[in-house]
Amino acid sequence: MSISVTEPCPAGARPPLxxxxxxxxxxxxxxxxxxxxxxxxxxxxxxIVAILGLNGMGKTTLMKALIGLLPxxxxxxxxxxxxxxxxxxxxxxxxxxxxxxxxxxxFPTLSVEENIVTGLGPREHxxxxxxxxxxxVLREMRKRRAGNLSGGQQQQLAIARALASRPKVLLLxxxxxxxxxxxxxxxxxxLKEIRDAEGLTIVVSEQVLSFALSVADRVLxxxxxxxxxxxxxxxLDAEKxxxxxxx
Length: 247
Known about the structure:
By secondary structure, this protein is of the alpha/beta class. The protein has 9 helices and 10 strands.
């Protein structure tokens, strides 16, 4: 199945400037098991897109294919017109992709500050002030070991580390996993603030519909490796989406 997603951002949302991330007919497999078959999507500059789906529907596979941890067997991935499908993960980071994996995966024995520094470029050694502006709690805890932070604080740290590379597109895989509902609301607010301040494009995979509706300009639904539904946030048929998530 090949589905191209090109509809505009809804009225009242921050208008994206143009197509930035282009995924054309990619197919991804684990061994002989085909997980994604000819999936296409577009993400516009400055847009937040949420990819909804239950576990096992291909969301994480798609994220890993975008960042280069899994090879696409067919199709193309372009960032600003530059082909990335043959590039290694570190080369994709240099071109402007950043990835926060499911489970956050911070370095538990390093301090908060040391974790963020690992995301900086080779000539940078100091955490940029704007990162602590978005996550002031990390400034307060910058000398604390990352392993001693709460789940929500570790998620903020993982995002801060990704932002240290000054990406064009931030990929977030299941960011609400294991986080309290009150922290989820804060995370949605912070992501929108970062998008507005930095002009960042964000693609987030998620199972929680309420989070997607609170953060995204546009929602895609994945079922068995295919995009089966797409809608701008405003006017989205929540009952239909919930039904698809129950499949």
